[in-house]
């Protein structure tokens, strides 16, 4: 809400600055209803990454952070996230009929008093459904929770793991 202020043109420009070569549609829901999640849905085209006869697919493109910003070994003061944050990512990938999946990230789910993080990759025929949810349950974390929070941030970075397909 704060970043885009429901400006779909600004959203499109941001997506084109990232991995997209074309944006076909952008739709938003619930911008004016702060008590429920703000949803941004879009469809677009990206270039693919190929290595030999394999194609590498990043199911969530560049949306999860690529590195853990919590780099200190220890922490002696609280970690302040400023506000509660949850993020849900969903991607539908259609694999051509003459391709097979070689590898994909493992599903996982973590839920405790610190955070809820999960990844679910489901394959049905030639359709891959990738869903991820990240929800930090507190605004401020105490210093003794730093190691756990740091390991959870590593899990979030792992959402960037690629799906690998190859021609049959």
Could you explain how this protein is built, in words?
The chain has two helices and twelve strands; from the N terminus they run αβββββββββββαβ. The protein has helices at 8-17, 146-157, and strands spanning 20-29, 39-46, 49-51, 54-57, 79-80, 85-94, 99-103, 108-111, 115-124, 127-136, 140-141, 163-167. A hairpin with a 3-residue loop joins β8 and β9 (115-124). The chain is globular and about 55 Å long.
- Sheet bearing the most strands, described? 4 strands, antiparallel
Q: Please tell me how large the radius of gyration is.
A: 18 Å
The helix tally amounts to 2
Secondary-structure content class: mainly beta
List segments where confidence is low: pLDDT < 50 over at least 5 consecutive residues: none
Q: What proportion of the residues is helical, as a percent range?
A: 10-25%
Q: Give the distance, in angstroms, between the N- and C-terminal Cα atoms.
A: 44 Å
Shape: globular
The overall pLDDT average reads 89
The total strand number stands at 12
* Sequence of secondary-structure elements: HEEEEEEEEEEEHE
Strand content: 35-45%
Strand order of the largest sheet: 3-4-12-7
What's the helix and strand layout?
Blueprint: H1 8-17, E1 20-29, E2 39-46, E3 49-51, E4 54-57, E5 79-80, E6 85-94, E7 99-103, E8 108-111, E9 115-124, E10 127-136, E11 140-141, H2 146-157, E12 163-167
Antiparallel strand pairs: 1-2, 3-4, 4-12, 5-11, 6-10, 7-12, 8-9, 9-10
